[in-house]
Task: inverse folding
């Protein structure tokens, strides 16, 4: 049976982050209010319909082949999320005890991803860091 690890983010943070990304990457020139209206009405470019999509997986989170996690969980306690995902997938934890886990968590850090050309989309990484620094709650900080 297939397994799904579904990761989502607070919709308010997603909307604000996507707003700034679209301004820089695609030249969007509308206001945040206009963009939010588009986001809520599933007209905001790549990542819509956002809320209906998240709700479909939220409603399936109890299924044995679906693991529903949030970006906020990962930022708060990445180690517990790593353990949860490894358990769900039936995979071993990193070898080497706590030292091995610490090295693995460091490998997964935002800073390390920035330096990894295989995953970082380097043309956007500086913009993303400038916009929000990978934090949650950006909808409050970056109106």
Result:
């Amino acid at each position: 049976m297939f397994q799904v690890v579904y990761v989502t983010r607070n919709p308010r943070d997603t909307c604000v982050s996507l707003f700034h990304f679209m301004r820089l990457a695609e030249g969007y020139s509308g206001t945040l209010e206009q963009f939010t209206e588009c986001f809520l009405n599933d007209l905001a470019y790549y990542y819509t319909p956002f809320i209906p999509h998240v709700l479909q997986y939220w409603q399936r989170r109890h299924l044995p082949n679906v693991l529903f996690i949030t970006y906020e969980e990962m930022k708060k306690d990445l180690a517990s999320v790593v353990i949860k995902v490894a358990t769900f997938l039936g995979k071993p934890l990193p070898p080497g005890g706590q030292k091995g886990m610490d090295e693995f968590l460091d490998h997964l850090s935002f800073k390390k991803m920035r330096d990894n050309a295989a995953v970082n989309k380097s043309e956007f990484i500086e913009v993303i860091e400038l916009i929000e620094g990978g934090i949650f709650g950006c909808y409050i900080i970056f109106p």
